[in-house]
């Protein structure tokens, strides 16, 4: 199906998510002009080489001029500067959305900078791989995954409807929720798992170099799944953890208590506690398979 | 290629590993008779239905009678009883091997019970999925993975050579190392990752039921990889953690220190520490990809 939801889309940030969205638009909305904006010259070169945008620029204000949709898809720490630079150049009635993983921080950074003549629809397509950069994108990235929109009380319903249609075009299931709730849910389903994976891979790399090569060789026993997650973009994840600080710290507290309880069971040879715990965790896997998210 | 390394193989325990090995023998060594031994009637029924063994019995002594190879492939906590039951029935010159994930404990449990007229080759094919039971096995499970043999000073080199050939038939790369060293390496590459995955999935399931359904829905952001690992067999993993207690407790100590350091960085807004850590962990993923274990 080909449609045209927008005339001109500015993608501020063209990494895994931005470039995947560009590919979706190329495929399903050929009438839409795409402008890609990135800070680094190599990234812009890659965009041109890949042919995923009609224009490529390092100037956010130039990118958004005349666009009826602006998608902010950079690490969270760049939001404030981007907001300041694009605000004066935004077209009347344009929709600004973003794809950041922490919605409270995204709203705090962008909302105060955007003029009232544009619509802001904070969003988070929950999809990704451990790869980053425009080369790693693909249109099918979003297929059957969830996109969470977190409109504020000021967001116009028509703008939410258009962003909903955009992500549905990409194959996503779209829901809305309050930003604060989103950040709590994602802390569990995404942020804590990433921090734990980063931790364990770091622990393993400090074990001395002779053991390290064996850790690599025998990683198939479970470790390699963690290394995949711990290969995710360092800047993006630094920003996520700092932006979702409160939810992270509370969850880390719970996690540490639980780990200490299992550690205690191992020390005491308490097999019943371990067995009961492991049986319970097995059940949640079944729920995920039933929800078709496996 | 079809060969015949053994005339009669007794598989004591016919879960994921045992049944996968049976499928390898069926495919590549059709002249070998296979006897499967399991405690539960359902398991024996499944073996008969699947046609992966020539005989199926719940009696370990009967299973090993006349076998020139015995493979112990049960959870570690069953080893002592199995050793006691099979010892009197083992044929002269038979080779006994096992597939347990903790070699120190495997040797401690079996070695004292086995008569000197048989050869004991402790082994660990490092391969698996989160599924268990005879239905979940497949011959390709072992392809290109490592198998670690941990012969004791008493193990005859010819017996090691025959077990090496067996796992090579299954497509594995075979190495030998000292049992204690194996247990340290596997604590990092497999046992700690499993315990952490069990912990985090347990932490998430205790968050209250309304949040829980959302955790399932939005699990694609990283959590689902942990749920896969945390769906592994509860009895097998209970036994592994208890059997590799010392190595686990030492590693857990290191892991907790590292997690506390990252938690402290999040609390203080110390982005540099986080970024430096995440950049380092990214590198090890590349090593794993280069080692073709990804």
Characterization of the model:
The structure is a homodimer of 294-residue chains. Chain A has 294 residues and is of the alpha/beta class. The first copy, chain A, has 12 helices and 9 strands. In chain A, strands 3-2-1-4-5-6 form a 6-stranded parallel sheet. The first copy, chain A, is globular. At the A-B interface, helix 7, helix 8, helix 9, helix 10 and helix 11 of A face helix 7, helix 8, helix 9, helix 10 and helix 11 of B.
- Low-confidence region ranges of chain A: none
SS elements, strand count of chain A: 9
Main CATH class of the largest domain in chain A: Alpha Beta
Radius of gyration of chain A: 21 Å
The tally of helices of chain A reads: 12
Q: Largest protein interface? A: A-B, 93 and 94 residues
Give the termini distance of chain A in whole angstroms.
Answer: 27 Å
Number of domains of chain A: 2
Question: What is the string of helix and strand elements of chain A?
Answer: EHEHEHEHEHEEEHEHHHHHH
Q: What fraction of the residues of chain A are assigned to beta strands by DSSP?
A: 5-15%
Structural class of chain A: alpha/beta
Main beta sheet strand tally, sense and closure of chain A: 6 strands, parallel
Form type of chain A: globular
Q: What oligomeric state is this?
A: homodimer
Architecture of the largest domain in chain A, CATH level 2? 3-Layer(aba) Sandwich
**What helical percentage do the residues of chain A reach?**
40-55%
Q: What is the residue-mean pLDDT of chain A, rounded to a whole number?
A: 94
According to CATH, what is the topology of the largest domain in chain A? Rossmann fold
The CATH superfamily of the largest domain in chain A is known as NAD(P)-binding Rossmann-like Domain
């Amino acid at each position: 199906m080909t449609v045209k939801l927008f005339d001109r889309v500015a993608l501020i940030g063209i990494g895994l998510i931005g470039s995947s969205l560009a590919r979706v638009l190329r495929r399903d909305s050929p009438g839409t002009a795409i402008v890609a904006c990135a800070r680094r010259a190599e990234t812009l070169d890659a965009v041109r080489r890949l042919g995923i945008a009609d224009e490529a620029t390092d100037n956010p204000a130039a990118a958004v001029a005349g666009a009826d949709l602006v998608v902010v898809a950079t690490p969270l720490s760049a939001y404030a500067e981007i907001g300041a630079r694009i605000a004066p150049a935004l077209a009347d009635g344009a929709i600004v959305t973003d794809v950041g993983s922490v919605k409270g921080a995204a709203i705090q950074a962008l909302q105060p900078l955007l003029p009232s003549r544009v619509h802001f629809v904070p969003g988070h397509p929950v999809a990704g791989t451990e790869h980053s950069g425009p080369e790693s994108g693909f249109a099918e990235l979003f297929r059957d995954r969830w996109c969470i929109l977190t409109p504020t009380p000021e967001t116009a319903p028509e703008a939410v409807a258009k962003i909903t249609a955009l992500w549905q075009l990409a194959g996503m299931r779209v829901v809305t929720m309050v930003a604060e709730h989103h950040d709590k849910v994602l802390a569990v389903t995404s942020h804590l798992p990433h921090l734990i994976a980063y931790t364990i891979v770091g622990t393993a790399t400090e074990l001395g170099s002779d053991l390290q090569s064996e850790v690599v060789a025998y990683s198939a026993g479970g470790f390699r799944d963690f290394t995949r997650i711990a290969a995710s973009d360092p800047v993006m994840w630094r920003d996520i953890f700092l932006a979702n600080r409160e939810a992270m710290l509370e969850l880390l507290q719970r996690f540490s208590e639980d780990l200490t309880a299992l550690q205690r069971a191992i020390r005491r040879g308490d097999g019943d506690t371990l067995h009961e715990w492991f049986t319970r965790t097995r059940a949640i896997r079944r729920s995920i398979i039933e929800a078709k998210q496996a």
